[in-house]
Amino acid sequence: xxxxxxxxxxxxxxxxxxxxxxxxxxxxxxxxxxxxxxxxxxxxxxxxxxxxxxxxxxxxxxxxxxxxxxxxxxxxxxxxxxxxxxxxxxxxxxxxxxxxxxxxxxxxxxxxxxxxxxxxxxxxxxxxxxxxxxxxxxxxxxxxxxxxxxxxxxxxxxxxxxxxxxxxxxxxxxxxxxxxxxxxxxxxxxxxxxxxxxxxxxxxxxxxxxxxxxxxxx
Amino acid sequence: xxxxxxxxxxxxxxxxxxxxxxxxxxxxxxxxxxxxxxxxxxxxxxxxxxxxxxxxxxxxxxxxxxxxxxxxxxxxxxxxxxxxxxxxxxxxxxxxxxxxxxxxxxxxxxxxxxxxxxxxxxxxxxxxxxxxxxxxxxxxxxxxxxxxxxxxxxxxxxxxxxxxxxxxxxxxxxxxxxxxxxxxxxxxxxxxxxxxxxxxxxxxxxxxxxxxxxxxxx
DNA sequence: CGTAACCTGACACCAGGCTGAAGAGATTTC
DNA sequence: GAAATCTCTTCAGCCTGGTGTCAGGTTACG
Lengths: 218, 218
Description:
Two copies of one chain form a homodimer. By secondary structure, chain A is of the alpha/beta class. Chain A contains eight helices and eleven strands. Chain A has two domains: 2-120, Response regulator (Rossmann fold); 126-215, Winged helix-like DNA-binding domain superfamily/Winged helix DNA-binding domain (Arc Repressor Mutant, subunit A, Orthogonal Bundle). Chain A has helices at residues 10-22, 33-42, 59-68, 84-92, 105-120, 152-163, 171-178, 189-201; strands at 2-6, 26-30, 47-51, 75-80, 97-101, 126-129, 132-135, 140-143, 146-148, 207-209, 213-215. Chain A has a five-stranded parallel beta sheet, with helices on both faces. At the A-B interface, helix 4, helix 5 and helix 6 of A face helix 1 of B. Chain A binds a DNA duplex through residues 151-154, 185-189, 191-196, 198-199, 208, 210-211.
């Protein structure tokens, strides 16, 4: 899927871009409205992530222009917590969903996937890895033929690993999807969650790459 | 079954048409109201899917004209999230069901089939989950062998859970079906309604996935 | 064999979930 | 139009199980 990210904060923007890219989507990141307009005129995006805090305050205009031109590309807007009026106006102007800053990157991923799925009409596919079957959209895991129940954190780790399946995922990356942006942790929490996942999904589900990270087979 | 689809977005329209055709129904797709009127005057459709976002805003008129002419063909309307007033007016004008954009195409298929069944005089099938039997079409719930009476909000929560049965549904998603999209809520209302549902339908009807959401068995 | 990296059982703590109660509206009944 | 009933929303206090941490054991690698 091709995503257009319109966000002027380059730290947050980078994090969002990486997270979406990690989900296997292509991302173009524009920091200014005029750049974004140009891109939208020339590329067929399948999703737009639009920050309504842009300093020139013309994000809403962009959205309205899009809809006026009968462009129905799904748009998710992001606003600050207090900008309720802006958010409502955004929804009235044709946005499909919204996120309130600060948001968990995993929450953002979920919304992006949900909107994309709705628009494409594809049911979320189950991913099979050995005897484990995973439905990311429905948050369901089946081991052998029995469903496994995961906790929130366990799910976050699993999701990260599965989205990158085949690749080696570092502890730092897993930590990032566990503790959204900011809160640091001083313990071996990642190891603990890997251990818990192995207990629930089978010892061989995750393999350890010493000094590098973890990996699930492709 | 012969379906008339009235939708001006040609991407979405194509997707809907393909999906309905895949269910074995015949579809005629009109992008303008006047075309649709002509078609309705000349073809006996068994279902109409009507987009109320049409730029000329005359979808409602079409519906009213149909009903004024005593044409009882089942009509499902589609509206944007924020168009609550339009949706209500549509239902008051004689629509049989509605879908809020963006919607799951599979959900749309389900509604189309449901309407088709009702129209054909077949009873809508009850969904059985443990000792609970649910008829989404008629809004009837039976526990054991006694009917249960649910309030509006309770029903909204139940419907969301049952339509996605098997999947874990987040609180945010439930909230979206309880309140006008984008409305904020500052309480544990979702928890309260889950609690009420459990009291009426049995404690085990809904299971909690801590930190993730709720789930009814498939 | 020594060391660093990793694994995992145990445990205290507290965030998240549950539910009874109660007030404010809304709706119905008389 | 007042009373009675039903529904919605919020809140507070209780309770549970998820979470982070650590310690001691295990494994890989030079």
